[in-house]
Write a structure and sequence with these properties.
- The chain has about 240 residues and is α/β, with parallel strands linked by helices.
- It has a single domain, classed as 3-Layer(aba) Sandwich (Rossmann fold), CATH 3.40.50.1240.
- Helix content is about 35%, strand content about 10%.
- It has eight helices and six strands.
- It has a six-stranded mixed beta sheet with strand order 3-2-4-1-5-6.
- Helix 2 packs across helix 3 and helix 6 packs across helix 7.
- It comes from Brevundimonas mediterranea.
- Catalyzes the interconversion of 2-phosphoglycerate and 3-phosphoglycerate.
């Protein structure tokens, strides 16, 4: 049966600065690089050899995947990049410091924007510093001006069904190096997590989440490879 590993990118510079990042293309910190390499070591120790790695078009995810594969001795694995695995678009919160935003709008409102399933932040105003319409990576793409986890799932799910699921159904093991919210979307999809429960699912940076799947791609087992940094997982039926 196929195995899937979800790997959230290591700590980024804006994670360190406590800023809303979303689609902004920031790089890893030295700690983030170390997390990625450690993730690769754990992947190797688990005997996991993916047939392919899927990742987003953002540097922090791509470099995490590359560093993990290098550390695991799997540098010949083909890599597929797609914007639909990008982090959630944080709209008008993009670039803002999270603590300062809570002071301005109130912690309860910011918690709703960050953790509710279907309430997006205010939209990003066009023409500003973080307007992605001029980015060639998104030419002819339906660029959002904000996203909730729900709308993130709405772009991730078709990509999962068209590109990732067929590889798993063919019996191939797959590695996905992506972001907290795009990976939460996949977790919600696989484990059928209710809307009100997915908001409590947290995926640690750089800690590979291994999921065993049956022929119908239903999880039969799941575990974090670094048990010391594990978070609670949805129940496996």
């Amino acid at each position: 049966m196929p195995r899937l590993i979800l790997l959230r990118h290591g700590q980024s510079q804006w994670n360190l600065e406590n800023r809303f990042t979303g689609w902004v293309d920031v790089d890893l910190t030295a700690e983030g690089e170390a997390q990625a390499r450690r993730g690769g070591e754990l992947i190797a120790e688990a005997g996991f050899t993916p047939a392919v790695m899927f990742t987003s078009v953002l540097t922090r995810a791509k470099r995490t995947g590359a560093l993990a594969l290098q550390s695991a001795g799997l540098t010949d694995i083909p890599v597929v990049e797609d914007w639909r695995l990008n982090e959630r678009h944080y709209g008008g919160l993009t670039g803002l410091n999270k603590a300062e935003t809570a002071e301005k709008h109130g912690e309860d409102q910011v918690k709703i924007w960050r953790r509710s399933y279907d309430v997006p932040p205010p939209p990003l105003a066009p023409g500003g510093e973080f307007d992605f319409n001029a980015d060639p990576r998104y030419a002819d793409k339906p660029i959002p001006d904000t996203e909730s986890l729900k709308t993130t799932l709405e772009r991730v799910e078709p990509y999962w069904n068209a590109e990732i699921a067929p590889r798993l159904k063919a019996g191939e093991d797959v590695l996905i190096a992506a972001h907290g919210n795009s990976l939460r979307a996949i977790v919600k999809l696989l484990f059928a997590v209710p809307d009100d429960k997915i908001v409590g699912v947290e995926i640690p940076t750089g800690n590979p989440l291994e999921i065993d799947l049956d022929a119908d791609l239903k999880p039969t087992a799941a575990r974090y490879l670094d048990a010391a940094r594990a978070e609670e997982l949805p129940t496996v039926a």
